[in-house]
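TICKET #2291
ISSUE: user wants both folds in one file
ATTACHMENT 1:
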Amino acid sequence: MKPQYFVAILFATSLYWMYLLYAPFLLTITIAALLAVSTSNIQELLSKLFKSRFSAALISSFLMAILFFAPLGYFLATLTIKLNSIDPQVFVGIEVYIRELIKNPPEYLMFIKPYAVDALKDLNVNALTSKAISLTGTIGSFSAGFLKNAFLIIIFYFFAQYNGTNIIEFLKRVVQMSVEETTTLAKELSSVMSVVFYSIIVTAMLEGVLFGVAVSFMGYNGLLFGIMYGFASLIPVVGGVLMWLPFMLYEFSIGDSSSAIFIALYSVIVISIIADTFVKPLIIKEINNRLLKEDDTRINELVIFFAIIAGLATFGFWGMILGPAITAFFLTILKLFEARTKECETKQI
């Protein structure tokens, strides 16, 4: 057996066992690596400021934990507590209100009466209450799992930031690609992920603030529900509805129809239509223009926008990171193929 074949067999065997060893952490490591790529410019800035990669990695990891994971942890923990302490009579009040509304709807809703009556035949408030209780347990277990994964992501993120340069240089030497091609691949992936990360943070904060301010005037916890809306807005199509619809139904159930109509119209018009549909692509475009100075590395903001939506729909919450990364990687590979094709055609001429 030739030595190179023996080395290849050893490599394949070791790769298989490495996969078995780290399979439970692959998604966590991937997310941490992509987040490190997204914030590499912050790491470089902190490294120059503190003259130490260790200090820079430690500070950037702390900032990531505070700015990204702390609000989500607060939201999940508070939501779990609130759901555990919710009064079942709230569901009874909502059911009574909906039945009365269907029985005697206003003139502009008369057309839905035949359909709604049939839909309410099987409505059982006890079943709804038990489902809400089971949902509380599900959210509680999800919260614990998420906090554990968040902790691991921060740990891997720190090591990725601290050793990122060495890892990239090692991969450049190992991968069978030219230095120029590997540099292009790393540069484009880093550029796109930076745009995605900052645009997600900015748009989620914008929509969360808009909703939080509105509900705070209604007497609710604006911080909690603003954070909830910010993360819910990442869910395609139904994200905002998951927040304002329960508010609307609850306000109707307690007889405050003006607040119910206000929160519905405000959420649909100001947040969903203006902020999400029109402002969000503009934010992505502005960040794209500011971060990416070279036209060759820019990716259309609509491509990034739909990559985020596709990622969320396919992979869930972390799809907002994976979707654009996969898209950017694919488009960069296409560019490399295009460059190689042109090079071959030039040589033939």
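ATTACHMENT 2:
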Amino acid sequence: MNELNLASTPRDTSLPDARVRRRSLIAACSAHAVHDGLTDVIYVLLPIWQSQFAISYAMVGLLRGSYSGMMAGFQLLASRLARRWGRERMLIGGTALAGCAYLVAGQAGGLPVLLVALLLGGLGASTQHPLASSLVTDAHEQGGGVKEALAQYNFAGDIGKTLIPGLVGLLLVVVSWETSATLIGLLGLAAAAMLWWLIPARSSAAAVKAKQARAVTGAGSPGGLLALQFTGTLDSAVRMGFLTFLPFLLKSKGAGTAGIGIALSLLFVGGAFGKLLCGYLGARIGMMKTVWLTESATALLILAAVWLPLSGLMLMLPLLGLALNGTSSVLYGVVPDLAGPDKRDHAFALFYTGTIGGGALAPIVFGYLGDVAGIPVATMTLAALLLLTLPLSWRVQRGLNTACKP
């Protein structure tokens, strides 16, 4: 009876589908904002932990690396477990685990407990990127607008990176870090509860429809996906390497601590809007044209950052941030097109693992080059390395052409 009613009133079917897309996107954006905020708030807490526990810089790096390492290393496992236990259940459980980890950190009386808490937090965070990305993709595939929706999803992550660490920084003025960590944990648990309410029950049905559609439209392109993996890894490596060197470039040009802070804010604001705008641009003019535009502009602006005086560098930083971060949204947007049927969770997990891994290794490798040859040479090498993404994006486009064939 319900099937007859739905069939006789097509308008009634479109409204629920639109509601599923909207609620799925809100859920994924909320998860991205909270998880990225919980990940980057560690930067605010690290100096306090160093002072309280009297630890070395190497141990500070271990604390930071424990969270990001667990997050990167377990994304593939999270995508596999989602097939058995369900994507929604894994995403909600991972968010709750990240919140519980901060509750444990808030009670930490020593370094071992704090380290365990951060490992648990990274484990919980490993579920977010691959599963929330797939949730957005499957919900929007039938109605269109996948790339635009993923651009909004990526933009939400930068909002979380900006708001949550900033609010915690203000909160630390009036309360202890233990209380702040406890409140962060409660935020994670509240986000998990919100996801349980937000993620629509019909999202699983939408995923089934999406798989059926993919089986008809194409089987993906393993070669194109591999080229995309290398493109994303290089893009992330250059981005993280440049962010590492930028404060030193600014300092060499006469910027003080306040000036460096303002410069980074300008770069991050441009980057946040770059993720949103370039995602839409990629949907309009295509992946390869957008990547060639953004990566070429990024390479030229990085070279300009070496030679420009401080005032010129400050003026161009929002534009540099837009190009530097914008490419990532374009690349995320084509992962679903290159993944084979029923392999999107795995493809997103693989892609995010590579980009996070490349971003983690780049400061070490190029930091060594900076010690040997100087910061300007290392920065210009980053710009040259970025040009390798141009032929790679051409290979990705060939993969897209193949994947879209019936």
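RESOLUTION: both attachments delivered.
EXTRA DETAIL ON ATTACHMENT 2: The radius of gyration is 22 Å.
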